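[agent] plan:
  1. take the single chain provided in the ticket
  2. run structure prediction with default settings
  3. attach structure tokens to the ticket
  4. add a short note for the reviewer (M.T.)
[agent] executing step 1
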Amino acid sequence: MKVVLLQDVKGTGKKGEMATVSDGYARNYLLPHKLAKEADAQAINELKNAEQSKKHKIEVETAQAQTNAKKLEGQILTLTAKAGQGGRLFGSVTSKEVAAELQKKYGLSVDKRKVILDSDIKSFGTFGAEVKLYTGISAKIKIKVVEQV
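[agent] step 2 finished; step 3 output follows
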């Protein structure tokens, strides 16, 4: 019997896949426990539509990420920080602050874990960073740290 899985089932398949299982397994276990539904024409059509929707979403997100990467590539982001004697910063500039500045300046919502700093920023100057926008798509930016007036 062909069924469309509604949940991950160990040894059978993952959620959203179509699987061929024995009639007894389907009738006595999968269907009563709502782990699967019978693969009729409607269920197969829903499965195909879901796959197409997922592909379209990935294409749109990839295109958006490439556009954002071109917009960010090579840009210089200026951050201000307080400093003590000798030009050393109080604390350091973190990826969280860089992500907040990207949101403010470019309107890009970037998770702080997706901002990779080349080195710890504990002094004034220009530093490199990489912003990962999507799987395999990233942009290199420069971070310029200046003294707060």
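[agent] step 4 note for reviewer: The chain has two domains: 2-54, 72-147.
[agent] ticket updated
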